Amino acid sequence: MKTDSPHLILRTRQEDSPPTRLLAQGRRLLPWLFGLVLLFIVYRMVAFLRQPPAAEVAPVRQETVVRALAITARLRPRYTNRVTPVVSGRLVRLTREEGEAVQQGEVLAQIYDEAARAALQQARAVAATQQERWLQSRRDFERARQLHEAGLNSAEELENAQLALAQQEKTLQQWQAAVAEAAARREDYVLRAPFNGYVLARPVDPGQTVGPATVIYEIATTDQLEVEAEVDEQYLSELELGMPATVSPLGNHRQLYETRLCYIAKGVNTQTGAAIVRFCFLAAPPALPIGLSLDVNLIVARHENALTVPRAAVAGFGSAPYVYVVNDGRTARRPVQVIDWQSERIVVLSGLAAGEVVIMNPRMVSDGMAIRPRPSQTAL
Description:
four-stranded antiparallel beta sheet; 34% strand
């Protein structure tokens, strides 16, 4: 019996169906597809590597600029006085403590003055005796003058009475001067307030022995306060007396006080490279503690329609400043004149026009370099 029937062979050929053929064809195409994808990736990488580097840029702006110098200062009295004795001795009394108010002429301290008091009493006693002698000489002279007018004594007797009166008067004046001198010496043992103010410091206590080199009190004025700060020497040429400034306690810009620049030191501290400046209040001084730290904003200049660029876009400060402008995707070095001021944006005096675009980091590019401009997100 035959087993290779036509029906069996036909059934075997029908098993090679269309889906099977498509799968086989897809397998043959897979390497080609993979190669095309790889070729596309390589092409994109080459194109990326061959494109110009990106560089942050910022536009040149035209705006009104107020140049202000922000500095930290301290509140201080305009006048201070160190009260020191002119004599040596033991302190027996101190009348004021630190922080207390004093009035001009008020007694602040007393030094033991027994010897000076005794000398004054002795001088007064001698002067009082001499006063009696002068009065007696004056009576004698008047009597001699009357007798002479009546012809009862000679001219010589009148002259002698007059000479005796003059001598007693001279002696009296000497002792009156001695009393004044003794009183002044005794006053040296009393220390008084030089002006209205308050006590900044009192470094001594009763019972201590003091002398002319000893500071008994440090007195400060209360009605004449000022603000003192140090300004770097590079800004001194910009400063002028009378410039306006606002002052506020450190970190509290809601509490503002108007001042003006009233003092610029003639010399510069060689160690710090700074000079002392002071600001005077336009109104009554604020009731703030002496020594308080203050924020000062000094208005130096106002520039209308000024051209400005970010400070980071300028290189060569101090010698020959320059920027890089961008033209048609390429950099071009451009010398500029600027006002070198510590701020985020600086004023350009020449070399640029409004609307031009400058490189934010000029030290990272070179002249004629192709770049892809990218607007800076940090430029103010």
